[in-house]
Structures are given as C-alpha cells and as structure tokens.
Amino acid sequence: MRPFDSGHEDLIHDVAYDFYGRHVASCSSDQHIKVFTLEKETGDWQLSDSWRGHDSSIVALDWASPEYGRIIASASYDKTVRLWEENPDEKECVGRRWTKLCTLNDSKGSLYDVKFAPAHLGLRLACIGNDGVLRLYDALEPSDLRSWTLTSEINVLPVAPASHLQSDFCLSWCPSRFSTEKLAVCVLDQALIYQREKDNMLHVVAKLEGHTGLIRSVSWAPCIGRWYQLIATGCKDGKVRIFKVTEKAGSVTNSSLQDDESNSDTTTQEHTHKSFTSSHSPLQVELLSEHDDHKGEVWSVSWNLTGTILSSAGDDGKVRLWRSTYSNEFKCMSVISAHQPQFHGAQQPPKP
C-alpha cells in the first residue's frame, strides 16, 4: 500500500483504472477530475492533469475500451454525463490535456453512475440517476465521438425517490461476448438484470433477491473458463453477496415483461416488477454466499480481470479479498488495511 496525495479539496466519490492499470482517474465534490500516471521506475502515482469537469459534485467515472481511444465518462449531481478525450500533444498539469467531447443532459435528476458497455457491443454507455430512469447512449459514428444518440430510456422506478441523499443507484454490464447483452441495475434495495430481447429492447429477466438495505455497489464478473456468471453486490445492510447466474436451456422471456407501445428509435419502457416471477425467467439466479465480515456498511465491490477474486470495501476501513474454494464456496483470503496490511495465513495476496 503506497498512499499518495490526490490534491482534491473535498470528498472523493470514485476512482477508476484504465484498461492497462497505468492510469487512474478520480472525481470529487470539489467538481474536479484528476488523472494520475504510474511511474514504472518508482511505483509512484504522478498527477497528469486536473480540470473542473462539472457544476456540482462528480460521483462516477469510467474509461472506455482502449480500442476507441483514451476516453473518460463522468456523471454528476448537475444531471449531466460528460465525455472527455485526451490530447497527448498538450502539456501535462495545465488543465487542457483532456477536452470535452459532449454533454448528455437528458436526466431529470442527479446522476449516480455511468458505465461503458463491453467493447464487443460498440461504443455504448449507460447511466442512471435518481429520476429512476436507465438511459443508454450510442456513438453511431466512431469517427465522430462528439455525436451520441439516446437509444433507450427505461423507467426502472415508477416513482423517483424524494431525496437523493437517502437513495442509491448503480449498474454493471455483463462482460461476456458469448452471452446476450445484459446489465445489472440496482435501484435502492432492488437488483434487476436486464437483457436485450428479440424486439431489440431491454427487459427485466431476473432479480437478485435478499437485500434488506440500499445497494451501494454491483459488479458483474468476467467469466473466463466458466459456464456460468457471477455477480457481486455490496449493501447498506452490511453484507457482501455473490450470486450465480445460469441461462436456462430453451427459455423464453415472459411476454408480460415486453412492452411494444413505442416503435420510435428512442424507446421508453416501463416495467411492473411486482408481476415478475422467476419461473418465467430465462435465467436461474442462486445466492452462492453472503458475508458480513465488514461489520458495517459495504460501499464497493469489484472483480479482477479474470473474475476469480472479488474485492470489497466497507465502513471498517478495510479491503477484503474473496476467492472461491474447490467446493465453490467463497472465503476471505486477505484483509488489507490502509495502515497495516494483514494477511490470513502465509499466503501473500494476489495483485488485484
């Protein structure tokens, strides 16, 4: 653990590594985005650039796949998503190295999360905020990254919560290129799986049950070498949960979940989750394990690139690393403190 001074003047809400792990971006209530570069020789993180990105707190960041260039998406309480592109010809630390490509301002409420889709789905991103609407955008012309089109609007919540201070929203894409397009969307204490169906629209096909508090974080694991999917959640009820998701052979999505009222390019969908039953789902969802080791609220969960190790962070100020045993049971293998690393047994922790 090598801490470094971020230079932010207020609470940091999110940090995100690029694909190669050589750059990290951070965002804060000080309305600034900062990008740091890892110095190979010293192992230190050096500030590459810092700029004011929004007119309110910036709460989420994500990097696009490197095949589309060096692009960052940011989401803010000012109700906008903004996309930024690096200009390597500009000097570092002058505030001009990252230029704004465009601003997406369709949200009616504060935004909480933004995520780029896996590269095989094209240059696509999803965002969600406290207006209860999941929005998907596509860059239809990869040669013109300043032009993005709103392709889907899905009403996840019938009624938006009154206060964003008492709510939470997060999402995670299914990274598998061998599976139909899916993403997990968490709103308040609900965790829903959406899947793109034959009508080219996203429909709820499964739920992740058992949460008794606001869901703070969700992460869909890469499935290298596995025939099933894993999804982890971190919850205000103090538990880390890991779900196993498998596709039922020959299953068809319940027609009651499909809504063909709109045939426009941008489709608004409303779903009545109360009528959803798992027997009609094309997916089988099983709770593999749940853990309360943090002894308090769990704020973040994240898988490594191979989907074999899960990291979680909570109110105890520690990062815990989880790995599956041969019996498919997840165990805490390492506990990392910001002050003094502590390892279970003689095994050293793997690089996350």
Give structural attributes.
26 strands; Sec13/Seh1_fam; mainly beta; structural molecule activity; five-stranded antiparallel sheet; nuclear pore complex; protein transport
Explain this structure.
By secondary structure, this protein is mainly beta. The protein has strands at residues 12-17, 23-28, 32-38, 45-52, 58-63, 71-76, 81-86, 98-104, 111-116, 124-129, 133-138, 149-155, 169-173, 182-187, 190-196, 202-207, 215-220, 229-235, 240-247, 267-270, 283-291, 298-303, 309-314, 318-324, 330-337, 342-343. Strands 9-10-11-12-20 form a 5-stranded mixed sheet, with no helix packed on it. Strands 22-23-24-25-26 form a 5-stranded antiparallel sheet, with no helix packed on it. A 4-stranded antiparallel sheet has the order 1-2-3-4, with no helix packed on it. A hairpin with a 4-residue loop joins strand 6 and strand 7 (81-86). The relative contact order is 0.09. Residues 252-265, 270-275 and 341-352 have low confidence and may be disordered.
Largest sheet descriptor: 5 strands, mixed
The class by helix and strand makeup works out as mainly beta
Distance between the termini: 12 Å
**Percent of residues in β-strands:** over 45%
Low-confidence spans: 252-265, 270-275, 341-352
Q: Which whole number gives the mean pLDDT? A: 86
Q: Can you count the beta strands?
A: 26
Taken in chain order, the helices and strands follow as EEEEEEEEEEEEEEEEEEEEEEEEEE
Order of strands, widest sheet: 9-10-11-12-20
Rg from C-alpha positions?
20 Å
